[in-house]
Amino acid sequence: MTFPIRRFGGPTAAFTLGGLTFVTDPTFDGPGDYPIGNRTLTKTAGPAGTPGPVDAVLLSHDQHPDNLDTAGRAFAMAAPLVLCTPTTAERLGPPARALPAWTHIDLPRPDRAGDVRVTAVPAQHGPDGTEHLTGPVTGFVLQGAGLPTVYVSGDNASLRVVEEIAGRFPAIDTAILFGGAARTALLGDANLTLDAAGMVEAARILGVRSVVPVHIDSWAHFTEGIDEVRAAFAAAGLADMLLVPDPA
Known about the structure:
Elements: E1 5-9, E2 12-17, E3 20-24, E4 32-36, E5 39-43, E6 56-58, H1 70-77, E7 82-84, H2 86-92, E8 96-98, E9 104-108, E10 115-123, H3 131-134, E11 137-143, E12 150-152, H4 159-168, E13 174-178, H5 196-206, E14 210-214, H6 226-235
Helix pairs in contact: 4-5, 5-6
């Protein structure tokens, strides 16, 4: 089954499932420096366009500008629904809806063939014991009758978390994995997201048919890009698993 998806740079992608269109972590500002606390994140490239109308935004977290910037926030707040962590929902207000880990919402499909169920799943934005520094993050699993099951990782750096998700959802078809081996002064040399080798291992754990890599470009603190991802999957004999859509 085909899986239509477009990427816009950074963690932002749009895909359609069951007739519903979803956007991940909208970031549509131009290049520049984005202060966060006593640090600055530098965006190196603007977005490859913006999506048309969407049914829901899947927002892993709002506390970092590389996952929700100013234009992305305006986009999200104009959407019918934003699914996110409880703390993000409290900060944003409507249309943001809190979806705690392992809870779900059923969204009616336009084709009247049932629902798309969106389940929030854990994500760990850095090494063990750093959530108090990085803040809560969520991923998502989407499923429906006759549809591929899709996992959106959000900013997750933990393979243990991936194993937990695979245990609950043993039939994931496509994984949209946030990579880039992101690093900032907050945690030094520790990865805040999966590196390319971790993405390969996550794909193996999940047993997926295809992987869509995002969060691998457009920001200076991403220490790996698509070349490292391609090389890692090729070395593992999984090059055909990668689905890398052209920019929108």
